[in-house]
Design goal:
Radius of gyration: 32 Å
Strand order of the largest sheet: 2-1-3
Order of helices and strands: EEEHH
Structural class: alpha+beta
Helix content: 10-25%
Largest sheet: 3 strands, antiparallel
Distance between the termini: 60 Å
């Protein structure tokens, strides 16, 4: 149930009320008894934090479905074999360079 902010136009009394969406808005001020109570526009009372939602969140199937969705298989492309290459000599450029 949302919390609505109300303010009386007659006496200036402010209040918050926990109301259902289907309930009629309040109109009578509890402080002065006048029918001058109106709803106020307020900011949302929550914050979204984190990096967001992932495609695998809240889907059925367990870990197998999540792994399949994250890493699709490709049967048409052969896997490349790693090539054994000799590392450049450290004496040629020094051990503090970016290539080592």
């Amino acid at each position: 149930m949302p919390i609505y902010a109300y303010k009386c136009a007659s006496c200036g009394h402010s209040m918050d009320a926990l109301r259902k969406l289907s309930d009629a808005p309040l109109s009578v001020c509890p402080a002065c008894g006048q029918a001058a109570l109106s709803k106020q526009v307020t900011a949302a009372g929550f914050q979204l934090k984190g990096s967001g939602w992932y495609a695998t969140d809240f889907k059925g199937g367990g870990a197998a479905a999540a792994a399949a969705a994250a890493k699709p298989e490709s049967k048409t492309e052969p896997k490349a074999e790693p090539k054994a290459e000799a590392a450049p000599a450290a004496a040629a450029c020094g051990s503090s360079c970016a290539c080592h």
